[in-house]
Design a protein that fits this description.
By secondary structure, this protein is mainly β. Strands 6-5-4-3-2-1-11-10-9-8-7 form an eleven-stranded antiparallel sheet. The N terminus is likely disordered.
Length: 225
């Protein structure tokens, strides 16, 4: 269960404006954003879960991530849930080892190969499995508004993602999901935020919201001492 904190990658938005003829076509925005996402090699990411997402044992994550070739590094904190209880943990992933500290300052070492049995963290920035794939394959995209996200001017797009297209980010996905995507007006329509709504087995579900910032800024990760 501890390894479940390596899931995906502060969600805040302003008020929508009315949809009008001035809004650009969603398909072009999605194509631009997917191409830009494919070039992301590092980012700060925040994840927030509202409600219950079956098989997803995370309430929140705040961390930094980098990927150079097949080398993945990450660090941050997460609130994970196990057996109905929530606990905060610090995590560091570097040189093929995941270090976890659930309290007391002592880190437990877990081989990355074991962590991948729960979640393949390298998928997040992989153009063929992660954010870029989700955006590129978004079905029925529609530009619905302009919106400010953490001080960034964005276009808000709605659409649908298949369970296969979102599996790199949320491996527990069992069905297609409704997705809302925010892309910047500049910087190649860089992805800023995405929210996916998951149905629940008992009629209740939850929403996973992921926000990216400090894209392609240097990320330094070292094993904890």
């Amino acid at each position: 269960m501890l390894a479940a904190l390596i899931a995906v990658l502060p969600a805040c938005s302003g008020e929508d404006t009315e949809q009008g003829d001035s809004l650009p076509p969603a398909r072009q925005l999605v194509e631009n954003s997917a191409n830009t996402a494919a070039g992301i090699t590092s980012t700060h990411f925040a994840v927030d879960v509202n409600g219950t997402v079956p098989g997803f044992g995370v309430e929140s994550i705040d961390g930094d991530l980098s990927m150079k070739g097949q080398d993945v590094a990450a660090k941050g904190t997460a609130v994970i849930t196990a057996f109905g209880a929530a606990a905060e943990a610090e995590f560091v992933l570097t040189d093929g080892t995941l270090y976890l500290n659930t309290g007391g300052g002592n880190y437990q070492e877990i081989p990355e190969s074991q962590a991948k049995l729960v979640y393949d963290f390298s998928a997040v920035l992989d153009p063929e499995r992660g954010v870029a794939k989700l955006i590129r394959n978004l079905s029925g995209p529609t530009t619905v508004a302009e919106e400010d996200v953490n001080g960034t001017a964005t276009y808000k797009i709605t659409g649908t993602a298949t369970k296969d297209d979102i599996a790199g980010l949320v491996p527990s996905a069992k069905s297609d999901v409704d997705v809302t995507l925010w892309v910047s007006k500049e910087n190649g329509n860089q992805p800023v935020k995405a929210a996916a709504k998951f149905p629940g087995g008992g009629g209740e579900g939850g929403t996973v919201t992921v926000t990216l910032s400090d894209v392609n800024e240097p990320v330094a990760v070292a094993p904890p001492k």
